[in-house]
Write a structure and sequence with these properties.
Helix 2 packs across helix 4. This protein is globular. The chain has six helices and no strands. The protein is mostly helical. It has a single domain, classed as lambda repressor-like DNA-binding domains (434 Repressor (Amino-terminal Domain)). The protein starts with a helix and ends with a helix. Helix content is about 60%, strand content about 0%.
């Protein structure tokens, strides 16, 4: 299972920017970005999460929780359909 740390780092690397550049774009301190990417916090403040998600072009829900599997149905559910 991916963590916010992994999703943040992967998103940042996918657009080829450094932590310093993400800090500049998002106005979030580099030390905060480093801390999140290192797994030092699982629940950043909402303003931090919004700024990072907007700067990376991802949703804050995805950044925090990962892909939404709520629309996937289990084999047991399919039997009862």
């Amino acid at each position: 299972m991916e963590t916010i740390a992994q999703r943040l780092k992967e998103s940042r690397e996918n657009i080829n920017i450094s932590q310093a550049e993400l800090s500049r774009r998002s106005k979030v301190k580099k030390v905060t970005i480093s801390k999140i990417e290192a797994g030092g916090t699982d629940m950043p403040r909402l303003a931090t999460l919004n700024a990072l998600a907007n700067s990376l072009g991802v949703s804050r829900v995805w950044l925090l929780f990962g892909p939404d599997d709520s629309t996937k149905c289990t084999c047991e559910e399919k039997k009862h359909s």
